[in-house]
Amino acid sequence: MTSSLCLSNIRIARVSTVPYTMIAHLKSQIEHLSKCGADVIVVSSDGTEMKVFEGIERVYTFPVNIARDISPFSDLSALFRLFKLFRNKRIHIVHTTTPKAGVLAALAAWAARVPIRLHTFTGQPWVSMTGVKAWLARLSDKLIGVMNTKCYADSFGQMKYLISERIVKKGKITVLGDGSLGGVDLERFDPNRFSVEERQSIRKSLGIPFSAPVLLFVGRITRDKGVYELLRAFSEIKDQRKDLHLVLVGNFDSGSGAGGAISPDDVSNYPDTHIVDYTYEPERYYAISDILCLPSYREGFGTVVIEAAAMGVPAIGTRIYGLSDAIVDEETGLLVEARDVRALVEAIQRLLNDAELRSRMGRAAMARARVLFNAKRINKLIEEEYLHLLTCHANLS
Question: Is the model's pTM score more than 0.85?
C-alpha cells in the first residue's frame, strides 16, 4: 500500500471550538490527511471562514456552535449534535483541540463508542483564572484526560506541567516531534516572498516610515497575553526612541478569564501603535518587524514564535512553559519573567540597540524553525501516529 493511501477509508473528525484554530494551525495537516486517503470532517462553530475548506477533496465541514463560556442549553445541544455526527458517520478517530470542544467531543465520542479519541492541549486557561470558573475549567481538562484514548501537549514544558498538576496521567500524554500544534508552513512563512517594495507598501498602509523600528504582537489582544505590560514597556521605551512603532495583530478578547480586559481605547492612548484585526496573513507583518513580543502569562507553545522565527524575526517572551520551548533564551530570542515590565523594557532595548545581535538571533531562530517545526514533518508524524493507533486498535479487537 502506498503512503498516499495509507489512511484510505478512515473517517476522522477534527474538532475545535472556533474556526480560527483549524484554519490558522491545522489546515495543512487536514489537507495532508485527506491526501493520505482519509475522509476528514472539520467540526467547529459556524462561520464564513470555514469556506476555506471548500473544494478540498475528502474534506467536509460540519458546523456545531460551541460556546466558549459555560452555557448549559448550548452545551447540551452541541453535545447531542456531536454524538449524532460521530455515531451516524461511524467515525474512527476524533481528535480535538481547545478546551470546550475537547470536553464536549470527548463525552460525545465516548458515548458514540468512537474507538480512538484524542486531544491536543494548547494551554490551560485556568492558570490565570480564579474561583469557581477556574475550578470548572481545571475539572474539564481532567475529564478530557480521562475520557480520551490518548492526549498530546504541544510542548514538553506543558506536558510536564499537566502531569505535575495531575490533569493527565504520565503514560497517557506525549509530545509529537519537538512540539507545536501544526508546525509552520515554510513556503508561506518565507522572508524571501516579500520584496523591498512590498515591505514599503505594508508599512505605508499602516503609516510607518520605512526606516522605523517595529515591535510586533500577534495573538488575542487581552490581559493574559501580556498586552498590558507590553504597552507600558513600549511607552517607556518610546521616551528615548521616538521613531519606535508597535503593531498589534489580533482580535480584542474580553472573555479570556484573566480579568482586566484590554480595549481599543487603551491601545489608542499610546502614540504610534497600530491595531490590525485578525488576519489570515500574519506573515505580512512579520516581514516588516524587527522583534516579536509575546509577554504572555500562559502559553501552550506559542505558534506565533515559530512563525516569526521562520521569517527570521527573533522573539521576546516570558519564562513560562510553552514559550520556554519555543524560544531558546540568548540564542533565538530572550526570555523574561511574566508581568515584569522592567525586565521587558530591558530586553526590548537590548535587541533594539544591537542590530548584530538581533540579526544573529533571527538567523538562529530561522534555522531552528526549519529543522524542528516544518509543517511537513509534523503532518507526517500525525499520519504515523494515527496509523499506529489504528493498528493497535485492530490488534486488540
Answer: yes
